[in-house]
Amino acid sequence: MSPAFIIIAFVTLLAAASAMSLRNLVHAALALTVTFAGLAALYLNLDAQFVGFAQILVYVGAVAILIVFAILLTRSGDTPDQAVLAPGWTYGIAVSAVVFTMLGWAVLNSSALPKENSSAPAATVKNIGEALMSKYVLPLEIIGLLLTAAMIGAVIIALREPGKTKMDDGGLKIDKTATPSAILNSPSSSGGHS
Amino acid sequence: MSDKIQQVFETFKQLNLVDKVDQLFVMLKQLVLAGVPEALQPLVSALLSVTLILAVFPGIFAIVTIFERKGIGRIQNRYGPNRVGIPFTKIRLCGFGQFIPDGIKSLTKEDIVPRAADKVVHFLAPVVMLIPVLLAYAVLPFGRNMTVSDFDAGLLFFFAVGGAVELSVFMAGWSSHNKYSLLGAMRAIAQMISYEIPLILSAVTVVMIVGSLKLADIVAAQNHYTFGIAHWYVFTPWGLVGFIIFFIASLAESNRSPFDLPEAESEIIAGYFTEYSGFKFALFFLGEYLGMFAIIGLGITLFLGGWTAPVSFLAWIPSYVWFVAKMLAIVFVFIWIRATLPRLRMDQLMNLAWKFMLPLALVNIVVAGIWHFMTVDWQRWLVCAAIIFGAYLVLGRGLMRNQKLGKRIYRYAE
Questions:
Q1: Is residue B249 part of a domain?
Q2: Fewest Cβ atoms nearer than 10 Å: which of A71, A127, B76, B199?
Q3: How far apart are CA B296 and CA B140, in angstroms?
């Protein structure tokens, strides 16, 4: 364990813990962003440039923004007065411990994991691109299709239903018959200049 | 240790005069590095590069602010700043000393934090703005052999750190507890996310042709000449369209007019930094300009040949001079546009990004693929130019279809 790993891991865990325990939702989202960035730093520490930068691009650049927007659009900025721990938190800890044990057991006994500490393969961005375009092209296409379908679904949900008043997004409407002086003079009676 | 220094001197002597001037800074850095112990070399190397960037680009920022004020002044038929020169002398320098009092003013002004503001986030926002912007300079090739850290995924790194700027804008807008700030932040984030897509897609074409995300490779691929004219990608059909899309998107990414809705003074005071004063405001200002320089630098690297000369007989001019000259030329165009075009409306902004630039960028990717696989030169010119022109016509018509543009009505004060 290098000092860099220890520092990054400490910062990531600290940010994750504060993301869980902070009362203000926006603060929690910002702490979660630090966690994302810490994960990216961990990837970079392992010399996985592509994954690291993709992590920053997707999670810090897009997912974090999505989360804060969701917070802003759904509720007011009031911070809750009661304790942040939900009443059933002990059950939660038990379930997460079970899941963690299961996952850890599965990973440690997986045949995909090389048992001996072989040297890491040099995965350049070019290798990743070639692998994505040849060996893994089908999963890539399927993910692309899924994401497109999700996006179309989101657009359809957001679309204005037909029959309701349609917003006219045409240009500025100015009464063409009005004379310049009429346009100028009409609002001046109420609004004063300062 | 002294023979290492000797070695650097020997390599320097072997260069001809043009290369000596060109490689001056590279050699100076190697000279310093030869003088420090092996273990400290990475640290000293990084420090030297960072110091140079921190000295040069804020310096250019200071000059450009005056340049902009004077330029806009001239376009608007007034003088602009023309008084301040060197202090305690009568030398005026056409007003180019103005940045010194401006800097002192912003340093000494009171730092006002609103009572309702979220203090910590309010404090962190300008810092979070500036750090990713400065990080982006790490991968830009400023000249021959002059890249701070030239790694494999340089282009991806640039776009990745650029994504963090949006977060800082949100932090500034939200923490100020001011509805104008929040509106400005919302506008800024919507605009940045929308225009990031055409920006990245237009850069993808260059990556397809070069076959590398490394910016040094991209410059090297453009660094050869036919009949004395450089092979910049802007001189190809897909490159020209890519450059124009990149240019427009970079205007929007750096919140410059006509895309200055996030800080539209006449509508929302100053947008997300309404509640910032003093040095924090100056940091936002600095971050915005440094971000603009960085994205212009990337545009130069991708489409305008980076530090290479446009014609081969001018190749004796040092590479870093070319880089800065191209950057300042594009900054001038930015200033010119700012003084010329009115601000877009929100729906126009979104329509332009999603209905015009995004489809055109996608067509451009296909065109770059055709360009790559066709071998006869005049044929691929014809085919690519025809596809792009057709796409431009169809998309342009589609964008203007429901606009109901009538005759312009002028309203005069009587």
A1: yes
A2: B76
A3: 10
Residues B207 and B167 in one domain: yes
Q: How many whole angstroms from its chain centre is CA B194?
A: 17
**How many structural domains comprise chain A?**
2
Kindly state the tokens that stand for A82: 């009661």
Position B373 in a domain: no
Answer whether residue A47 is part of any domain.
yes
Letter for the amino acid at B306?
G
Same domain, B255 and B217: yes
Structural tokens at position B203:
């850069």
With contacts defined as CB-CB under 8 Å, which chain A residues touch B160? Answer: 53-54, 56-57, 60-61
Residue corresponding to tokens 């790194």: B157
Angstrom distance (rounded) from CA B219 to CA B221 = 5
In 3D space, the residue among A186, A188, A166 whose CA is nearest the CA of residue A174 turns out to be A186
The pTM is what?
A: 0.83
Given B317, B343, B369, the domain boundary residue is B343
Q: Is B342 on the interface with A (CB under 8 A)?
A: no
From CA B70, how far away is CA B325, in angstroms rounded?
19
pLDDT in tens, A36-72: 999 999 988 887 888 888 888 888 888 888 888 888 7
Report how far residue A13's alpha carbon sits from residue B44's, in angstroms, rounded to the nearest whole number: 31
> pLDDT digit string (tens) for B214-254?
888 888 888 888 887 888 888 888 888 999 999 999 999 88
Which one of B167, B168, B358 makes the best mutation probe of the A interface by having the most chain A beta carbons within 10 Å?
A: B167
Contact A184 B413 (CB under 8 A): yes
Which among A57, A170, A176 is the nearest to B163, CB-wise? A57
Q: CA A151 from chain center: how many Å?
A: 15
Residue of A nearest to B159 (CA): A57
> Do both B21 and B74 map to the same domain?
no
ipTM associated with this complex: 0.79
SS3 B346: helix
Who among A33, A57, A183 is closest to B159 (CB)? A57
- A72 and A9 fall within a common domain: yes
Q: Please work out, in degrees rounded to the nearest 5, the angle formed at the alpha carbon of residue A53 by the alpha carbons of A50 and A54.
A: 80
Domain extent for A150: 121-160
Q: Token pair of B153, please?
A: 């995924």
The tens digit of pLDDT for each residue in B249-285 reads 999 988 888 888 888 777 788 778 888 888 888 888 8
Give the one of A60, A125, A174 whose C-beta lies nearest to B167's C-beta. A60
Q: What is the pLDDT of residue B412?
A: 81
